[in-house]
Each structure stands twice: as structure tokens, then as C-alpha cells.
Amino acid sequence: MFGFFSKLIGTKRQPQRKRARRGGLRRSRLQFEPLGQRVCLSATVMSFGTDIELVGVGVQSYGDTVLVGHRVNSVTGFTEGVILEIEADDGSVSESVLGTFGGNTFVTSISPNGQYVTGTSLYSDSSLPASGFLAEVSNPGVLTATGGLGPIPESFGFDVSNSGTVVGTTDGLLVPYSWSTSSGIVGLTQPNGGARGISNAEVIVGVDTTGINATTGLIVTTGFVFENGSQSFLETPEGLSSFASDISPNGEYIGGFLSFEDLTLFETINQAVVWVDGTLTQLKDAEGNVFEGQVAAVSDNGYAVGQGSDGLGFIWHESFAGVRMFDEWLLDEYGETLTTPVTAVPDVLFVNQRLHFVVDGNASLVSVLAPDTSPFPYHNKVLATDVDGDGQVAPLDVLLVINALNNRGGAYKLPTSRPIGAAYLDVNKDGSVSPIDALIPINQLNRPEVITTRLIDLGAGVDVVGVAVLDNGHSVLVANRVNQSTGFSEGVIFNVDTSAGSFTESVAGSFGGDTFLTSISPNGVYFSGYSEVNSTAPFEGFRAEVANPTVLSGTGGLGPVPESFAFDVSDSGVVVGSTHGLLLPYKWEPSSGIVALIAEPNGGGGQGISAAGAIAGGTFTGMGRFNAVHWQGANQELLPTSEGFNSTAADISPDGEYIGGVVTFEDLTLFETINQPAVWSNGELTRLEDADGNAFRGRVAAVSDNGFAVGESSDGRGFIWHESFAGVRLFDEWLLTEFGLTVPSAILSVTDVYFDGVTLTFAVTGTNGLIQTPVPRSAR
């Protein structure tokens, strides 16, 4: 129960203060000079010298990057494991040394969330074997041994998941195993191989011995997938061996290599490969020749990295013409030159639209904004509807598309390269020219109100959670950020002159610790949130006035656990939230103080309030079940929810006609929990789907008076929905198609939406700020 409703605090996005670091055998602050960067492409390089061999990278929930590796201790002569933690705020680096069982300690992997480390450590007693281990980044001095199986109980840890499950090999490198604190070490198959990688859903990949090659007499190995207790083998050409070395965190990509004997050269050839949805891709160079090497790691967006047989690091993506040397790719794409050649790329991680690479040669972290891998050279990325590239939208832009269609007798596919000076004919970015490429700029030209389409970027470091529009046309946004001086989270109020594109800011008050803003009233008069009273006391919800933001009125609390959280505030200043250990929904106003919405504590909270005082939220209904609820005065109504599903409401429109939230169900074929955005209107539930009719994954964060629902998808993309749409649409693509607006960076979440009768105003993160658009004609 607590786990489910603790997520409700995060419905309105906010930063979290970092946990205190502890437990390292040795920790020090490192000073370094990051190499130069091309800011426009957001590429950074941090190098750590030649004495350390980096092997893995993780990114923690609050943004810190964690690297792991090993080096030889110059005093003891033993190999030791090392953790490097890079602060997201200032780029400073802290170092910790892992514990040991007494001898050499080698690190092999870190979980994608940067919480766990695995590897192998030798015992000081030479009669005892080595053991795989699990260690926490927050407590690196303590290694938990995985132990071993069989007559040779030595084990090796090769990979670790976000939940701390270790996979590797035991019994003389013969038995693949998984290990967790709850189950201990468990053999996956009969003694004939080893496990090498594990996904977030704990799908395991590795290699097994499957026979003898009749021609060469050599052992044949085959890559395997182990899922839900059963093993299947990866596609491998006849007579070849295969080896799976890694699986992406989302489980979509598997990397490794094929091995075969070249009987003309009398040598063994390793060819780098990637499996996608069970289909094998054998990597080749730009000339179409077999690329010799081994894939070490694969990312959620399909990048494969590793080392070529020539001892140089490489990178591959399906959008490339062939495998590329990592040094050359980094120079060509980002203008970055490393000080020494990259000899290997042992890990890659894709998080929040950035690719993080660990490279060897001069141990480095390379972090870049992920490039657009879609080959659309005829699409104008600055202004999609500006076909002739002159910086504006005019009838000539339409005419160029029409002439192209007439010249070719209709729609056609565009080439993969565009000559200098050629028109940007691919307005909708699909790689072709078709009538829609003329229709989009026509619609823009016929819409005089398009001048109200605006983007106000507040810059990096803020997490926008709410927006309102004032009578004078200005907008007010509330947001959170980490104060660089104090280390505490603070609330910020931005007053935006949308016509001038300028803004001023003020900082909200605090009860003494971390302070998080959660909402602003539609009329822009009040904002709500919660603040830590002191380092030992709980949080308390509050309301404050935008005109006097430093004065907070605390809501107090109820029950033995009087901590409270304020989640929304109405035009009249009524606050709703949760208290008593997230067990009691409440409302608060100065005249009555805090009042529980239900008689007995049973979980849940008030998440949204309308202008008339209708409240939406969630409540516990027994036996692990939760249901979205609507309070109107003293009346409580459970909102319709599909049989066997859980639900909760996150917001109610100011006029009370729409309620947005999420329904949750178990997919028994995938063995995972699915969150599907939902909208309730006039007592009817609509479960949001994509254009193909499949359940869309994510959560609605806010709804407007005219029925627009916005939020964040499960894969970290902002979305928008309206009943006039064919399905949920990603917010970036909707802006481009409807208004020709291209945002400078991907929209990760749309946290709020406000409709003033003419204009839609959105609070967004990724591009952190405000976006205003007219209402599309289809939704009027």
C-alpha cells in the first residue's frame, strides 16, 4: 500500500535531495579539467588517466553519474575495485574503493540505475576460490558473496540488474547462475556455459556449449536467453558459434559475437553481432565486409559498442552505413577529439536523451546528446514548414512541395542525402514527399492565430510543475530546483511576459529544509507544495500567495503520523493533499484548517481540486486494490475502473468536467505491471490508446477545461491526448505537425495544461518552460 501511494508524491515532477554518501573504505574528491565541448551538440568528455580500467556506467535517479572499474594498488600490488561518482550539479568527482575478500578484486558491471556493483574477488586464503559479489554504491566497503555451486564452487559475477540480481558463472566456468539476497545462488541450466547480462525485467543472456563442429573438431557454443524459467537459443548460422555478452536494460537488444574458422587464413574470426527481437544482424564495415570484433554492450535505443580485432573501440547503430571507429564518430558528429586513441568501449547507457559511454585508452566518460538517427536530410529541423530555408513560412513553401509532386506525378521517397541548396520537402519528417507536406504549411498560413504559438525556455536546472495565465496575458509558472549553495531543493515562481519572451523569478519560502512546489491555482493567485520542517521532522503541506511567496501557511497534519503533503490548490485557496503517513486524503483552508475527506485512514490522497471545490484522488479499497475517487462536498464516489484493475486520479479540470489519472493492470503474457493513462468524463472511463489501438503506457498529469490530457509516457516522453485524436500523440510530434514548431530538446514530460478559452498553455520539462498554442481546429 505504501509503495503504491508513495508514487503519488511524484505525480507532479520534483527533484529529490541526494542521500548522504557513506561506508566507503576510502573516499576522496578528485580534481580534473573536462575536455572542451561543443555546447550546441552537448558533448562532454571527462578523463581519469591510464591507471584505471573503467568497465561500466550508471545514472542515478537524481542525475549523478557513477563509473566503476579497477586498478592495481601501488602499495599492496593487488587489483582493487573503484567507484567514481560524478555530481550532476557541479561535475565534481568522488572516489570510493570497494571492499575485498582478501585478494585481487575485479569489477565487471554496475546496474543502470547506479545503485549496485558486481564483480569477482579472490579470497586471501589461497585454498579458497574466488566469489562473485554484490556491493551497494552507497556502502562500497561491504561485499556480499554470491557463493558457488558444484564441485568447483568458484564463481564470477558478470552483470547486475536495477534490483540487485547478479548473474554470472560458477562450477569452473560451467554453470550459468543468478543470485539475489532472497534466493541465494541458483543454477540456470545444466553445466555447460555462463550468464553474461541481465535486463531490468531480469531476462538473462549468456552462452552454452551445444556440441562439436564435425569439420574442425572444435567446441560449438551458442548464445542463449533465459526468461521465466526457460532457456531458448539465439539465431546462429549453421556451423558457427555465438556468444551473447550483454542485453539492453529494456531487453530489446542483445549484443555479442559470432565465431568461425577461416580455413584459408587458418585463424579464428570473431564477428560483432546484435540480435533484435530474435533476429540476428551481423555487423559489417562501410564497404560491406565482415567487421571483426566483439560487442561489449548495447543501449535501450540500439547503440552497440565494443572492441574491434585491431584493438580499437567501435560504435554501431542500424542507421549507420556500417560500423564506425568511436574516435572518428565522436569527431564527425560532435567535433570532439580525445587525447589518446579509444582502445575499447566497454559500456553504453541511454538515459534522458543522452548517451553515456565508458571508453578505454585514457579511461574516460563520454556523454553526448543522442543524435537523431532517422535519416531525414530533407527535413528542416529549425522550422519544419520553412521549405525554402529562408527563415519564414510563405506561400512559396507550399508551391515548392506542389511542384515537386507534379514533377514526379505524385508522392515519392526522398534520397538519403540532400544536395546543398535543395528544398526541405520533408515537412512531416517521414522520408517522403506527399500531399501532407503541402497541407501542413497551408494550415499554418490559414491560421492567423498561429502567432500565439510561443516557446519560453527557462533554462536547465528547473523542473516545471504548474502553469496559470493572468488577466494581463502574463503567465505564471511554478517549478523546483536544487539550490547550489545550500544543497536543498527550493521552489521557484516565474512571472513570464509571453509577448516579450522575458521573465522574472522569485524563490518560495521554506520551513527549513527541502521545499517542493506541486501546483498553482488556475487564476495564478496561490501555489501549493510541501516543505521539510527540519532535518529530523516530517514534511508539512503549505499554501502561499504568488504576490507574497516567502510566507507559507502550513496545513498541519492529522493522526499519529502528522506529516502532510499538499498536491493542489483552487482559485479560492483551498488545498488538497494527503496526511497521516499518506493514509488520509484531506482538504485545508484558513477558516476550517485541515479536514479529512474520509472517516478512517485507508490510503490515498486528494490530488486535484476544481474551481467549485470538487476533489479527485485515490483511495485504498481493500486487498491490495486502489481506486480513483471523486469527492463532491461530503459525497465520495469511486470512479469507474475496469474489472481487476487499480486506478488513481491525478488531476481534475478547473470546470470539473474532466478527471485524469492512470489505470494499472498486470500483463500476464509479459509478466509486468502496465500503467495506462486514463480520462474520466461524465462518469465514463476512457483508457488511452495509441494510433494502432494498443494500450498506451504512461500517466495523465493534468487535464484542461476543453478536454486535453497531458502527461508522461512510461519511456520518458511527454504526450498529449484529446478525444478528437486518433490516439495519444507524443507532444514533440504534435507541435511539429500542428504548428510547425520544433523544440530545442525533447519534451520529457508535460506537467500541466491551462485553457483560457482561446489559447492552450503547457508547462513542460526537457525543454524546461512554457509552450503556448492555439487550439487545433480539429479539437474545436
Task: Describe the structure concisely for a colleague.
The chain is mainly β and 780 residues long. Helices cover 6% and strands 47% of the residues.
Strand content: over 45%
Task: List the total number of helices.
Answer: 5
Question: How many strands in all?
Answer: 59
Mean pLDDT: 86
Q: Structural class of the helix and strand makeup? A: mainly beta
What about the largest sheet?
5 strands, antiparallel
Shape: globular
What report would you give on this structure?
The protein is mainly beta and 780 residues long. Helices cover 6% and strands 47% of the residues. It has five helices and 59 strands. The strands form 15 sheets. It has a five-stranded antiparallel β-sheet with strand order 1-6-5-4-3, with no helix packed on it. Strands 2-29-28-27 form a four-stranded antiparallel β-sheet, with no helix packed on it.
